[in-house]
Amino acid sequence: MSQSPQSLLCPDAFLSPLEIDDAVTRALAEDLGRAGDVTSIATIPADTQAHAIVIARKAGVMSGLPLVAAAFKKLAPETGIRAHARDGVSVAAKTALMDVVGPARAVLAAERVALNLLGHLSGVATATHEFVRRVEGTRTRICCTRKTTPGLRALEKYAVRCGGGFNHRFGLDDAMLIKDNHIAVAGGIAAVLKRAKAAAGHLVKIEIEVDTLDQLREVLDVGLADAVLLDNMDAATMREAVEMVGGRFALEASGGITLDSIAEIAKTGVDYASSGWITHSAPNLDVALDIEM
Amino acid sequence: MSQSPQSLLCPDAFLSPLEIDDAVTRALAEDLGRAGDVTSIATIPADTQAHAIVIARKAGVMSGLPLVAAAFKKLAPETGIRAHARDGVSVAAKTALMDVVGPARAVLAAERVALNLLGHLSGVATATHEFVRRVEGTRTRICCTRKTTPGLRALEKYAVRCGGGFNHRFGLDDAMLIKDNHIAVAGGIAAVLKRAKAAAGHLVKIEIEVDTLDQLREVLDVGLADAVLLDNMDAATMREAVEMVGGRFALEASGGITLDSIAEIAKTGVDYASSGWITHSAPNLDVALDIEM
Amino acid sequence: MSQSPQSLLCPDAFLSPLEIDDAVTRALAEDLGRAGDVTSIATIPADTQAHAIVIARKAGVMSGLPLVAAAFKKLAPETGIRAHARDGVSVAAKTALMDVVGPARAVLAAERVALNLLGHLSGVATATHEFVRRVEGTRTRICCTRKTTPGLRALEKYAVRCGGGFNHRFGLDDAMLIKDNHIAVAGGIAAVLKRAKAAAGHLVKIEIEVDTLDQLREVLDVGLADAVLLDNMDAATMREAVEMVGGRFALEASGGITLDSIAEIAKTGVDYASSGWITHSAPNLDVALDIEM
Amino acid sequence: MSQSPQSLLCPDAFLSPLEIDDAVTRALAEDLGRAGDVTSIATIPADTQAHAIVIARKAGVMSGLPLVAAAFKKLAPETGIRAHARDGVSVAAKTALMDVVGPARAVLAAERVALNLLGHLSGVATATHEFVRRVEGTRTRICCTRKTTPGLRALEKYAVRCGGGFNHRFGLDDAMLIKDNHIAVAGGIAAVLKRAKAAAGHLVKIEIEVDTLDQLREVLDVGLADAVLLDNMDAATMREAVEMVGGRFALEASGGITLDSIAEIAKTGVDYASSGWITHSAPNLDVALDIEM
Amino acid sequence: MSQSPQSLLCPDAFLSPLEIDDAVTRALAEDLGRAGDVTSIATIPADTQAHAIVIARKAGVMSGLPLVAAAFKKLAPETGIRAHARDGVSVAAKTALMDVVGPARAVLAAERVALNLLGHLSGVATATHEFVRRVEGTRTRICCTRKTTPGLRALEKYAVRCGGGFNHRFGLDDAMLIKDNHIAVAGGIAAVLKRAKAAAGHLVKIEIEVDTLDQLREVLDVGLADAVLLDNMDAATMREAVEMVGGRFALEASGGITLDSIAEIAKTGVDYASSGWITHSAPNLDVALDIEM
Amino acid sequence: MSQSPQSLLCPDAFLSPLEIDDAVTRALAEDLGRAGDVTSIATIPADTQAHAIVIARKAGVMSGLPLVAAAFKKLAPETGIRAHARDGVSVAAKTALMDVVGPARAVLAAERVALNLLGHLSGVATATHEFVRRVEGTRTRICCTRKTTPGLRALEKYAVRCGGGFNHRFGLDDAMLIKDNHIAVAGGIAAVLKRAKAAAGHLVKIEIEVDTLDQLREVLDVGLADAVLLDNMDAATMREAVEMVGGRFALEASGGITLDSIAEIAKTGVDYASSGWITHSAPNLDVALDIEM
């Protein structure tokens, strides 16, 4: 019995079937071009069957297995899928992730697309998870930013969840994030927060970015924010900020957060530490396809 | 006088205006969502103008400036663009790349999309260029693979060219690359090459992947290939391969090529060294936007 | 000098130029079909010019004027637009809204699309505004729901803003709204709120729907919600709810809210009253085009 | 056995499977956004099953049931559908329309889209049917106009058919409708009809709009029209028009036709009475989903 | 001064700017692929300008010049267009049709797309015109069918108009055409015509296909058709049919109509002669581009 | 058991399932329009079943049968398909190609689309095959060009393969073809070939067009080309060219190649003869649908 792509999703995260179909179709179209897999057409008979095994060559956290299944089925709906892992799971190096049985030409034609999707998203999930492991036992949650690969935001945000991270805004539209330019134009922190609150509906949160504790104090005085982003502060200042705020709103550390610095940042007691690196610069996880025909 | 996106292209590489428009539209749609930049609508008057400067915080090779210009103009066609660099150029850290003058709300709404595109593609171009610099003075050319970020292949292949690299196949369809599975099914190297040659039109090149010098010798005997991919060979073996082939077809080194190993590989005399890393795992170049309103 | 569609937007609301272009293109394609305006091709010479005036036959609040301008320009870019109103403005019956000067065939071909867009969105804005006027002087804000016309959500949410209303969620994804089924599956209000809070990022608000004051009390005890939706309560119960909550989170009245009942509801002191009617059932505003050739 | 969306169509009307898929996909994408149903992901386990019942809260004529079925299946193909009604059928208030059995998360995620589609189209069908009932026993048929909700024309025209109405033109391209501007530019009724006839193929009908009986007489003299639209005439004048024409071509009453006036209009003997209101301003039919998990 | 694509349209026919943009974009994407014009990038400097002249090598009727202009401008908006002909005009062999001045790379990249569009549509227009010339002086009009090249219907129907022909149905939806299967299922000619009339709105024409004069007589008796298609009748039978009908409805000759037979058919007095050949099998008109750089 | 569209593909050629779905959807949308098959809705009950047989009226080579199957299944997935031929096969006149059993309305609605696709592509395959038959026993292969019908390139290139032909470039991007303008701008044959070689990756072939044997000699001297296109040469000159080249690279004859001249050209010993006519001007193959209900 073949498994459906949906059944391989991480249970704590959302990825729409529309998005899966769209991403897979787009990637296949890009790779097949106009003439398709000219090599396999020339060298492999149309009726040859293949048994392929998707493998994680390196250890990591899985993300993208539903897309892998969907890619193979898109080119040959009769392809059988049996998965040995699902998204969100950590696997060791050299783990067999999925058996794929179908027409050899279709398996070969979908191979690179499947691996590119799985390698990219598992790369994001694995990078996220490395941060997450370093903050275990603290109150700090790792979250992503809007610094994502253009066109892949929903997929990468999903991968962050697979890795145990939390999602920041998905776009400019699902929360307010007030930055220095907004403050400057509005005429200060009090003014900008009042404008923001007056415009925001009751389901829109307001976060404001501050560079100094003085600014943070002003936000505390005005009191209309749901969260404050501490921009490029050192750990000592962050610790002070945490004390000042006393849980009245969420504190997010941002700017130059690395695997080296994250543990110390988490010790300051901030609620969130956000990293653009996990989405825009995480290296691919090394995945491969072993094929027998 | 505002500059057109097209005028900022790398002169040695192609990126279609259709692709530019498509990538920018898709990325903007993803970031604007349904409600748009709720923060700026709430805090910045509709008629406020902004002057923004796109900056490279770190040194690197530019790729994506036409997309940056297109992103700003897409949201406000009246935006003025004056660029101080174009794609394919190396810039020092802290270089001002482009002045952007337009409605503040539109500038802020396009900011992240513009930076994500520029940071990603310049990351690829810069990574490519680092490899290219290490092979200067040798006959070896750096080239990319099909291990690209799903949905971004044309853009990333363009970025590779901006960085001085060469492009391998754009997809499964523009050349034949015969791998172990094809050889096995067809019944050996001679058989697979004959099948391939019989099917290929006169404008389709044939490359075949070999693991050993014995296989290479067989290819030399059959003589129907345009290029041979040396898969995961050490430098000594590659050197031998170069001698054996004596320029009769192109030799491509592939597998585990890193910045550390590339110089030694180039010394073997191979024609091409291909790297998936430069497209699937190159870190973003750090770029930013300074805004005055 | 012709005006740009963007310049006619309501300054307090967002509508993306991508959305404008998409909505207009889709509507024009739907009306032009494959053969276009066969009547005008047959009866009006290609070089005839037209001067048209967009008119509000009935009083109302404008929404959709940028789309009107975009529709005419889409079919003939040389068309001149001079607007006498912009979105968000209330106009009297028989107000001239916009002069349009261009090729007669193009003006006639775009007429119905322009009027359908303007009539529909101004209908929503006007309906919203009637509710807004009835709550003036109270703390209650009028907001919309997800009961919108399929395919037109971003446009209708914009129209609600034009009418002075606030926006509720734009989709399932930009805030949590916990309903009876969620409560039942999770095993009660405390359990569901804890699950929700554990999963929500720091920029996602949580609203929970309650039917009774007992449920409301439980929410107050648990304390993890940002807002509570009072489902189908009578005014007396709502008043009690307002007292119980004492401003600790936002209260939204929902269910059967009409122009007749809204004033009384607003007197209860709830923060929001939400209406599906203003988006799914508001009648078109009567708008027309007077044409001289 | 689950039923297919197609099997729920009104047998006398057409709605393409392409259109169904397109409308449902578009509406789901709009509601799911980038992050999907964050509430259900957080609070309902991935393997929870739901049994939902689609209900008409108010009496009305069904339109949109195939779209309801398609929406649930789109998010989870394994969802079981058992319908108790089909499009075109009148149901009483509180009628159970369809049983839906599937994964709870998918059922909840598709709920609003399904109800918005069904409520909107059944609203149009029900409004149409109210007009149709008032003209029963007369020769007058109720028909729609091009005053439809932008982007929903094919769906709304289908809903009109479900309600027992007839369709006017689907667009500018499937028949000629000559209005005052065409007459003026062409230099009078005789001239415009000759031009129209000369250009029209043999499968394109020609209708002309007249304001007065004098104009109608002129049309009768020229004799090239298939139908005449009587624009804003009172019932007495219409009756005279009917006599004058004596069945030589179809007569359509248009302008300000309401539920109050329609019976009197029908008594005049006109062949068609057209109403924009039934498509652009019909209120939603009240439909709901009862869910058990 | 550069001319707009729209200004080159045939004045008696419609082609939407949306359709022009769509067709040109699609064809360019198909030809540029992912890597674009690799030859010109390699061999022609980015700043080289070109002056190209579009030429009709053979005599014919023009159709597609607006698409030619749009193709060049799509790749380089600054391209200057000066046309010496417009669609619908007959030109001699070796006529210069249009001067194009722009960046050499863009001109070369758009060349084949422009010529393919112009050659195909002018081929249809020219084939149509050859039929039209042979029926001059008779009452017979040449018209097309639904036997068009998939995906190009609107363009080819436009080309038929450019050639002086008339358009039959654009699709299944804009008129009824009753064929033998419909008659058989409905239980005869009288029954099928009654069903059709009962379902058709007042702007939908009804045509019925007959094979024999007996069937034609039955149609005359029933009297609900607007047109009759005479299927594969010889000229003598057609002449009899014309007499029988006496102008009471339009008669269309169909089936095996060729340039050899058309004159004789026209002499029978039928109103229309329809040909699938002019759209599905007309050879390309020979057009070329002369370029100077 | 119903057959899948994929199973009807020509085994030596590629056509992506994405392309099949896209082509069929686009063609159906074009034919169904907004109102669908109004004739069948009016005259054929919804539950009538049909048995249809796809027939080749004339002898020819099949291409497009997978699209035929896909078209019927797209409108009614339950439709049963039993094929008696597959693409690439030659059939005699009056051959039954496929049995189709499904809902009558769906079968009739998809009929014209199915036949248009099959007739067009089989026309291309049949025309190609006529050339191929005339060169049997020679070394000459027939190939296509980029002179294809806009929007149908992948389909037509596939049809050429079905007919036994070879594919030239699929677009501007998959090989270099140097023409007179490139030579002129670069400053001669040697210069242009060096530029091309310097820019081309190792999997991009270079072909150069020559008009004279002097030019050919120059290409031989420079030696960087993979193929040479002999433009409009007579047979004697071609024969000389073949001798001069002595197999060092592929020779392609191009320009004015017809069924009359092809045999003589093949005798010259050229490797390829390319024809635009087989894609842009091949007449439709006559195919039909016999239906029983």
Structure, briefly:
Chain A is α/β, with parallel strands linked by helices and 293 residues long. The first copy, chain A, has eleven helices and twelve strands.
Keywords:
six-stranded parallel sheet, 293 residues, homohexamer, alpha/beta, four-stranded antiparallel sheet
Distance between the termini of chain A: 20 Å
Unreliable residue runs of chain A: none
Global outline of chain A: elongated
Helix tally of chain A equals 11
Tell me the quaternary state.
Answer: homohexamer
SS content category of chain A: alpha/beta
Using a beta-carbon cutoff below 8 angstroms, give the protein chain pair with the largest interface and the number of residues from each chain: A-B, 71 and 71 residues
Order of helical and strand elements of chain A: HHEEHEEEHEHEHHEHEHEHEHE
Radius of gyration of chain A: 23 Å
Overall pLDDT score of chain A: 96
Percent helix of chain A: 40-55%
Largest sheet of chain A: 6 strands, parallel
Strands of the widest sheet of chain A, in order across it, are 6-11-10-9-8-7
Strand content of chain A: 15-25%
Annotation, overall tally of beta strands of chain A: 12
Could you explain how this protein is built, in words?
Six copies of one chain form a homohexamer. Chain A is α/β, with parallel strands linked by helices. Chain A has helices at 17-32, 38-43, 65-75, 104-134, 153-162, 180-186, 189-199, 213-222, 235-245, 262-267, 277-280; strands at residues 49-56, 60-61, 80-83, 90-91, 95-103, 141-143, 176-178, 206-210, 227-231, 250-254, 272-274, 287-292. The two termini of chain A are 20 Å apart. The mean pLDDT of chain A is 96. At the A-B interface, helix 1, helix 2, helix 4, strand 7 and helix 6 of A face helix 1, helix 2, helix 4, strand 7 and helix 6 of B.
